[in-house]
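Title: Prediction job returns without error message
Component: structure pipeline
Severity: low
Priority: P3
Assignee: unassigned

Description:
Job completed but the reporter wants confirmation the result is attached to the right record. Sequence as submitted:
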Amino acid sequence: MSYIDENYYQETYKGEAVDSADFPGLLGRAEEIVEEMCMYRISEGRLAEFPPEVQERVKKAVCAQIEYLDANGGSDLDNGADLQSVGLGKFSYTRGSGSAGETQSSYSPRAQRILAPTGLLYRGGGCL
């Protein structure tokens, strides 16, 4: 069972078009990355333990992560592939000559903003 399905992505989130054949793979990778981003405080089986507004933010963060992965080379982004120049549809990327050693984050900036008010990104210790 996944956090979302393709219908949620298209109809509720209204994300950028993703090839249906690519969607399952992107969904699985996006869910893994969002769980990692939240330091594994969330999982599919535990999502119902959170308030409805947090559940909705997690779902939207997964969608944002799918969109980000798809726009930036799919799973190769998460695999650390070092691309020099890539173009696909609306997306084009050329690595600048001064960027040696730098890698692009596998975390979607939008997913991070969506999750920010939930406290799931907090890396500190417990609070009393």
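Comment from assignee: result matches the submitted record. Residues 52-71 form the longest helix (20 residues).
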